[in-house]
């Protein structure tokens, strides 16, 4: 979405799993307006409307050898930035190469960190919205490249048909959202529509058997990747997320707060009460308000003292209710109990 860009740089929104860029329909126009920047969305291969041509349950000519892995999605994102976003926004004779502000929800956050690891030259800032610290089950017996062997094909078909049932989609959203009024039948129908082609069963099997992303530069896992990010990083976490809980967000901040980063880069953590796993869709007004301040601050060192919230506990109103925002400080992060610390570190390895 183009709202007449300036020198702040373009913004790329990365979605969670099971949806497409349509899940950004609330945040995208607000963010374009509030930042006066061009905002992009993308559908990962096998998600939303992004599919190989002439799918045939993993047997099509354009499916053979394909793997629906985090590495595949990362490569797709890099190609999109290199070949679409930068050429459309780079000013001729500019003194420095254009970079992108990346905003990732759920697995989109995981991919944002992987992008920062693989191509730091492309990333201006990263904002993590309830990022998942893990992806890729790497199940044994198959490398995830289509076509699938009989057992993965059977399991993938069975589970895929269950999760794309409208009743299952509704139950999933009831867990993902703190406010049931924040999602509707239209969203459910769009999620279901993503699954109705001839490639969904094979794609889901490949996703289940695919490995985690392969980090570069001797980085071992998501937490280690966070500690090596070479850009300013903002966490915006819904406090009522039952999957990526506040303790996981605090553990991410511990990784970001390591000595090697702290001297050069800034990390901040804003928590949103009464918000679940998808702040971009459940609290778009609040998210856009914070992101616009973060992105509009063009001098990196200013971000440490930048006033992201006008009060210690700031209230904003979404159509379905009030959202309370507060900044999580170092004392709060260090006060995590032993159980939460252990679980968060175990999950985030």
Can you describe what's shown?
With 349 residues, the protein is of the alpha/beta class. Helices cover 40% and strands 13% of the residues. The protein has 14 helices and eight strands. The protein has helices at 27-35, 70-89, 107-118, 150-163, 166-176, 185-193, 200-209, 221-227, 246-256, 259-262, 279-282, 284-296, 330-334, 338-347; strands spanning 11-14, 39-41, 100-105, 123-129, 232-238, 267-273, 313-318, 321-327. It has an eight-stranded mixed sheet, with helices on both faces. Strand 1 (11-14), helix 1 and strand 2 form a beta-alpha-beta unit. Helix 1 (27-35) runs parallel beside helix 12, helix 4 (150-163) packs across helix 7 (200-209) and helix 8 crosses helix 9. It starts with 10 loop residues before the first strand and ends with a helix. The mean pLDDT is 93.
